[in-house]
Structures are given as C-alpha cells and as structure tokens.
Design goal:
InterPro entries: Cro/C1-type_HTH (IPR001387), Lambda_DNA-bd_dom_sf (IPR010982)
Protein name: Putative Xre family DNA-binding protein
Structural class: mainly alpha
Strand content: under 5%
Pfam family, one: HTH_3
CATH architecture: Orthogonal Bundle
Domain HTH cro/C1-type: 1-55
GO molecular function: DNA binding
Length: 82
C-alpha cells in the first residue's frame, strides 16, 4: 500500500482523510501491523483504482529487481540468484 500511496504523491494524512481513518492506521497497514477490514480494503482499492490483489496479498510482493534477475537468468539458461 505504501508504494501506491507514494506513487500517487500522497501523504499518510491525505490517504487517511480519503479513507476516513487516522494517519496512524495508514502507517499500521503499511507496516503490516494491522489488517484492514474488507470495507477498508475495498476503499483503498477505490482510492488507487486498482484491483484488490494489486494492493493486498497474503505473501509479500517480490521485488521488481528480483523478478528481472530471475527472468534474465532464465533467458540465458542460468540458475536465478535470489
């Protein structure tokens, strides 16, 4: 969620105001200290105009760099480095 917020040029306070929560809640969501209700998760997706799986996942998203390393190694017939 932090990536979406930063890419949108929003502060935690601005996102919190749009969601109707306090900025501490946004921080807790971004750190993974708090899990949103379904209603809050849907609101986050509406703010950023993304599907739910683009904003939330059970496992952390893989870094883009790691994906490129793996794709490059596969193209060259090499074993990917993690």
């Amino acid at each position: 969620m932090r990536v979406l917020r930063v890419e949108a040029g929003m502060s935690r306070a601005e996102l919190a105001a749009l969601l109707g929560v306090n900025p501490q809640t946004v921080g807790a969501l971004e750190r993974g200290d708090h899990y949103p209700s379904l209603d809050l998760a849907m609101s986050v997706c509406e703010v950023f105009d993304v599907p739910i799986e683009a904003a939330f996942a059970r496992r952390p998203f893989e870094s883009i760099a790691a994906g490129y390393r793996r794709a490059g190694a596969s193209a060259n017939g090499e074993e990917a480095l993690a």
